[in-house]
Amino acid sequence: MKKYLIIGNGVAGTTAAETIRRHDKAGSIIIITDEKLPFYSRLRLNEYIEGRINEEKLIIKKEKWYQEHNIDLILDTRIVDADPTNKTVLTLDGKNISYDSLLVATGSHSFIPPIKGSEKKGVFALRNIKDAKNIIEYAKNADDIVIIGGGLLGIEVGYSLLKSGKKILVVEFFPRLLPRQLDNDGAKRLQSIMEDMGFSFRLDAKTREIAGKGQVEKGQVEKDRVEKDRVEKDRVEKVLLEKGETLPAKMVIISAGVRPNLELTESLQVHCDKGIVVDDHMKTSIADIYAAGDAAEFENRLFGIWPAAMEQGRIAGSNMAGTDMLYKGTAMSNTLKVAGIDLASAGDIDAENRLESKVFADKQVYKKLVFDDDKIVGCIMLGDKIGFNKIIRAMSEKRNVSHLKDQILTKGFNFEEL
């Protein structure tokens, strides 16, 4: 009986386990995670912060699912070392666990830029349920909240807190919101809608410092006064921008992207660059060790999106169980809601206007298709994502759509024609 070990219970690890069980009914499958919950949706943490769903609703795979699939899930357990020669890993509490085939699906962590004062009390990042709980608790006594980072996650967290009555100001280094998903016109449209909701923005702005109330006064002698002033100094009170502006802030949430969790790579002896380097079978440089999800690097690329993690987990699980499946990459597309607004984007959004494009826009909708040699190579759909999947299929098949260019974005277009 083969022993499968999976480190990480996110979408990559869980999908791999489910796929392994589909191919191997008898093998032993163990998933180890330092999380305290079974597989849950990080994508819905903003809903949890808002109070729309509880912890139970976050969970995607209940304990019963693991039992039905004969998968041993070990929660709240951290792997601290590995021995690839003897095929074992070591837990923090001193247990050795052996494997025949290992998948590293350790995910990623929030990136905190080197901003002075980022260690102060009241500064947060959101990556897991623990972060969400800390944000909910601290926000109870914070009315002015600054979000550093105008990407998707920062905006979504800000939207959740805005709906609970907080003042939200977003500081973004780039001159537009969602620079990966929107071009200039689309970003301006989204910004206008969000300002109507109550958001404030500082674009093309760099944070110089996250500051407290100031220094402890010299000559203080009362112990309790000194301690009180120290606490006040360590608690965030304002955000200072490089251009000189001071923003009031009782709480700061940093949303500056993520970095792969690579703590085990040295002991596993796998080759790393930006992430754990894998081939088209999701194999690492060490025999019987695979990687998938945010920690995996394929063809010099970190994907960092849910569809890629799911597909990589499926490919890795299949190959661990003895099949022969190839990973060819995942189209960088996103279908989501931003502050309650439908947004779908894919491919080359051509923010620099280098290519041919067609645009449709009104007060509620902004849609753009980007063409190269009569083929769709990029797409933005803000406020209306009807037909997005058909467009993605046409993109992936590199279909010539010259005869439909002027029709695709018109009202009532039948996307079956694509």
Essential attributes:
about 25% helix; five-stranded parallel sheet; 25 strands; single chain; about 25% strand; alpha/beta; about 425 residues
SSE class: alpha/beta
Q: Average pLDDT value? A: 92
Please compute the radius of gyration using only Cα atoms. 24 Å
Low-confidence stretches: 215-221
How does the major sheet shape up? 5 strands, parallel
With helices defined by DSSP (H or I, 4 residues minimum), what is the helix count? Answer: 11
Q: How would you write the strand order of the largest sheet?
A: 3-2-1-7-19
What share of residues are in beta strands?
25-35%
Distance between the termini: 48 Å
How would you sum up this structure, described in words?
The longest helix is centred in the C-terminal third of the chain and has 15 residues. Strand 24 and strand 25 form a beta hairpin. The radius of gyration is 24 Å and the shape is globular. By secondary structure, it is α/β, with parallel strands linked by helices. About 0% of the residues have low confidence. The strands form seven sheets. It has a five-stranded parallel sheet. Strands 9-16-10-11-12 form a five-stranded parallel sheet, covered by helices on one side. The protein has a five-stranded antiparallel sheet with strand order 21-22-25-24-23. It contains eleven helices and 25 strands.
Helices and strands in order, then pairings?
Elements: E1 3-7, H1 11-23, E2 28-32, H2 45-50, H3 55-58, H4 63-68, E3 71-74, E4 79-83, E5 88-91, E6 96-98, E7 101-104, E8 108-110, E9 123-124, H5 129-139, E10 144-148, H6 152-162, E11 167-171, H7 184-197, E12 200-202, E13 207-211, H8 223-234, E14 238-241, E15 246-248, E16 251-254, E17 258-260, H9 265-268, E18 276-278, E19 289-291, E20 296-298, H10 306-320, E21 333-338, E22 341-347, E23 356-361, E24 366-372, E25 375-382, H11 388-396
Parallel strand pairs: 1-2, 1-7, 2-3, 7-19, 9-16, 10-11, 10-16, 11-12, 18-20
Antiparallel strand pairs: 4-5, 5-6, 8-17, 13-14, 14-15, 21-22, 22-25, 23-24, 24-25
